[in-house]
Amino acid sequence: MAVYFNNQFLQDEEAMLHVSDLSIQRGYGVFDFLRAVKDVPLFMADHLERFKASAAGMHLPLDKSLDELGKIIKELLRISLFPETGVRLMLTGGYSSNSYSFSTPNLVITCFPIKAATATDFERGLKIITYEHQRELPHIKSINYLMAVWLQPLIAEKQVDDVLYYKNNIITECPRSNLFIVTKDNKLVTPAHNILKGITRSKVLQLATSIMEVEERDIQLKELLDAAEVFLTSTTKKILPVLSVDGSAIGNALPGPVTKNLYERFIEREREFV
Amino acid sequence: MAVYFNNQFLQDEEAMLHVSDLSIQRGYGVFDFLRAVKDVPLFMADHLERFKASAAGMHLPLDKSLDELGKIIKELLRISLFPETGVRLMLTGGYSSNSYSFSTPNLVITCFPIKAATATDFERGLKIITYEHQRELPHIKSINYLMAVWLQPLIAEKQVDDVLYYKNNIITECPRSNLFIVTKDNKLVTPAHNILKGITRSKVLQLATSIMEVEERDIQLKELLDAAEVFLTSTTKKILPVLSVDGSAIGNALPGPVTKNLYERFIEREREFV
Hints:
Two copies of one chain form a homodimer. Chain A is α+β, with helices and mostly antiparallel strands. Chain A is 31% helix and 31% strand. The first copy, chain A, contains nine helices and 17 strands. In chain A, strands 8, 9, 10, 11, 12, 13, 14, 15, 16 and 17 form a ten-stranded mixed β-sheet that branches. In chain A, 45% of the residues are buried. The mean pLDDT of chain A is 97. The A-B interface holds A 3, 13, 15-19, 21-29, 58-59, 88, 90, 92-93, 99-102, 108, 110, 133, 136-137, 142-150, 152-153, 176 and B 3, 13, 15-19, 21-29, 58-59, 88, 90, 92-93, 99-102, 108, 110, 133, 136-137, 142-150, 152-153, 176.
């Protein structure tokens, strides 16, 4: 498995950071994650733009242009050539002399085989629970997943697939995906504030506008439980129906027609891309 | 500089973590930090107890007893022998196969020369600003300092020494220290909730009870600005007077008599220990 580390292509086992790096010392760094089918990275320009914005938002200078990053990713994909690949770009706070101040960031790009959600996963759908929490600096894709990792034992105990954050009764996002609801009067609604704006989220919004009314706005917990359909979007999940929230069924607890329609359009959109 | 990494003593430059570690992938890990004078670690039992509690609170199994950790630290101090040493214990989420799930934690203990606050630093005092923020899982000493590191450019721009967090008008703590106020009717008050309970904080509370009334409770922002004296406590700061908050002078903007008294008692307490 090949890795790009600062200015070199290395073997996976050589991708090591000294413990003085601010990611290890202070959990300080940004990343982005995209998916490739064979050697074709999906929506790479969007992911690289967001990576650049995350770096800038965290005061981390990025010494490569998006064009250079794109070329490195393509070279990694050429070397790796898995059927489906996850590409992870990371930019850390760098080797800090006092374990607190910024230093020159370390750039690490890794490629690894993944299995994105399939049609079978779509039919099975997801069960989620809600948890009161607001991510710090939510618009930045930082490496801070303290709460998400910490909640894993609770998710296992409740035998569900994921957790949805809310604050003051307003829902926001899952740790690694965005949420949409289809209201009973057939509007597609997704949270607008205090979230990370996913790339799949933006593609779904684009696909939906031609077929239905779309709103980006706050959603109350109550409105979520009362929705006709609920689904999550992410790079690996694509679109997956949510069939229950906190043990309450959504609609008839089966993937709904709007979710299905959008899913088919999204798969078609991906196919065109590849 | 010597390092202990899992079950080995290594050279500093060998203390490397593979990028799949959950600290790098998800900012997930705990630590503790203590100070040694020559080869004597200060309040080590308290720090080790807290480290153990942080690990348990984060679902991270610690495969060493506190006695074993103490012996490793003493060996590191014997090898290093600086006049003043910082000892940092870290336990990370481990090398994760999917960059999300827990694995066997990595334990890293590093020693490095430090310069704790001096009498001159005490006389100079500190200027701080306030910032609305609540740390996640505040009672655990996790490596999540996203906000603290992110705020450093603001601290530099405002030409102050540190930032004090508050939420809903209640003050809590600075990123790496606890705060105390001395009220105009001569009570020592320090926040009780939503903070990390510092070891120096607990020593100061012990020292203070014999000389004055002490309260652990919520403190409003307004009460802070109206205090006779304000000071911070931490392992490296010991006790440092806060002379201004958000540009407003505290008292006459000089170290106050109560702060001085507690500082002298604390230095004396340390001296006995060494």
